[in-house]
Design a protein that fits this description.
By secondary structure, this protein is of the alpha+beta class. It has five helices and ten strands, in the order ββββαβαββαβββαα.
Length: 245
C-alpha cells in the first residue's frame, strides 16, 4: 500500500483527531476473577487485558532473591489480534516487550517488600492498533494496584509520533507504520519521572523535547481515567484516591 496522507489540509489526522488529541480511552479494573489483580484497557482500536498473580513462592526455587521480589512479566499478542495471523508461541518481539514492561514496572514496585517471592504480570493483547506496549504498561499498573502490590506510583504511558512532519500524540497503527518516528513514553507522575523512553525513526532534539512535553500533558488525562477506573471498582471516597492525581 502507498503511504497515505497522514495530515489533511485542516491539520487533522487520518482518524480525524487533532495532533494533541488522545484516542477514546476506556479502563476497567477487577475484570478477571482468577487473577489477584486485573485490568482491561481500550485505547481506540487497541484492546488488552492485564492480569497479576502474587506475591507467591518462586518456582523454580533457585531464581528467588534473598533481599527482593521478582516481577515476572509476559507480554503476549493473541494470534487474532493483528491483520496477519501472528504465529503461536512467543515471538522475539514479545520477549523483548516483556522485558520492556518489566523494566518500566520495576521502577515503581517496592520489590524489597516481598523478598523470596514473585509477582506474575500478564499482558494479553486482544486487538492491536498501535501502542500496545504503552497501553500494556498503563493497564499492568492498574492490575498491580488492584492486586494490592506496594508501589510508589502507577505508570501512565502513551506514544508520540511524527507524521507528515507534525508531532502527534497516541499514534495508531497506520501512523506508526507510515510515520517518520514513534516515541513511546511512560511516566510515573507522582515521582515526576520518565520510566520508559524509546525512539524508532528520526526526530530532532527539539522535537524530542516537545514530544515529551506533549506526553506529559496527555498523561494527566490518562491518570484521571486510571483513577476513575479504580474508584468505580472500589466505590471509595474520592479523597482516598486523590493522592494519585
Ligand atoms: P506497539 O504496539 O507498542 O506500538 P510496535 O511499534 O512494535 O509496538 O507495533 C506497532 C503496531 O504494529 C502494533 O500495535 C500492531 O498494531 C502492529 N503489529 C505489531 N506486531 C504485529 C504483527 N506481528 N503482525 C501485524 N501487526 C503487528
Amino acid at each position: 500500500m502507498a503511504k497515505p496522507k497522514l495530515i489533511d489540509e485542516n491539520g487533522l489526522r487520518i482518524d480525524g483527531r487533532r495532533p494533541d488529541e488522545l484516542r477514546r480511552i476506556r479502563m476497567e479494573v477487577g475484570v478477571l476473577k482468577k487473577m489477584d489483580g486485573s485490568a482491561y484497557i481500550e485505547v481506540g482500536g487497541t484492546k488488552l487485558y492485564a492480569g497479576v498473580i502474587g506475591p507467591r513462592e518462586v518456582h523454580p526455587k533457585h531464581l528467588e532473591l534473598p533481599d527482593r521480589g521478582i516481577l515476572n512479566c509476559r507480554y503476549h499478542m493473541a494470534s487474532f489480534s493483528v491483520d496477519e495471523r501472528k504465529t503461536l508461541g512467543m515471538t522475539r518481539r514479545e520477549i523483548e516487550l516483556s522485558k520492556v514492561l518489566r523494566e518500566a514496572l520495576e521502577t515503581v514496585v517496592f520489590l524489597e517488600e516481598f523478598p523470596r517471592m514473585m509477582v506474575d504480570v500478564f499482558v494479553e493483547v486482544i486487538q492491536a492498533d498501535g501502542g500496545t506496549r504503552t497501553a500494556g504498561i498503563t493497564a499492568a499498573s492498574l492490575a498491580l494496584a488492584d492486586a494490592g502490590i506496594p508501589m510508589a506510583d502507577m505508570i501512565c504511558a502513551t506514544a508520540v509520533g511524527k507524521v507528515d512532519g507534525t508531532l502527534v500524540i497516541d499514534i495508531n497503527e497506520i501512523e506508526d507504520k507510515y510515520g517518520e518516528a514513534d516515541m513511546p513514553i511512560a511516566i510515573a507522575p507522582q515521582l515526576n519521572s520518565i520510566v520508559l523512553l524509546q525512539l524508532n525513526g528520526r526526530m530532532t532534539a527539539d522535537e524530542i523535547e516537545k514530544g515529551i512535553m506533549m506526553a506529559q500533558s496527555a498523561i494527566k488525562k490518562i491518570r484521571e481515567i486510571q483513577v476513575d477506573a479504580l474508584k468505580r471498582n472500589y466505590k471509595v471516597e474520592r479523597d482516598g484516591l486523590e493522592k494519585w492525581l
